[in-house]
Amino acid sequence: MWNSRRRIGRSAGWKTSEASRRILYIYCALWYNIPMKHTEMSETSNREMITISRAEYEAMQAQLDAQRAELAEQNQKLDAKTAELAEQNQQLEAKSAELA
User: Fold this and answer.
1) Is the pTM of this model over 0.85?
2) Residue 40 to residue 33: CA distance in whole angstroms
3) How far is the CA of 37 from the CAs of 26, 29, 41, 47, in angstroms?
4) How many angstroms separate the CA atoms of 70 and 64, rounded?
5) Residues near 24 by Cβ (< 8 Å), separated by ≥ 6?
6) How far apart are alpha carbons 38 and 86 in whole angstroms?
7) How confident is the model over 42-60, as pLDDT tens digits?
8) Dist. CA 14–CA 28, nearest whole Å
9) What is the structure's pLDDT at 42?
10) Which burial class, exposed, middle or buried, applies to 29 when counting CB atoms under 10 A from its CB (0-12, 13-18, 19+)?
């Protein structure tokens, strides 16, 4: 019952004290500043840019293209080996079915 009277009193023109306003101001400042500071830190730590020459860039691109070609070749070899192993597996299953 005491809480209900207090709520009614607040809704009917209750004014905050100076201490309450200060606390509210601090909470608002923290609520805004803490997430914003984390955003600023993550942006600055992720934005490390360097400048390289055009020749260095083209050399890196050529190296990357060579690695991609090598990976594609290895992928084809792996696919061929997988198909070969699947065929051998079918042959072994056929032989085991004959023996059973």
Assistant:
1) no
2) 10
3) 16, 12, 6, 16
4) 10
5) 16
6) 53
7) 555 556 778 889 999 999 9
8) 20
9) 55
10) exposed
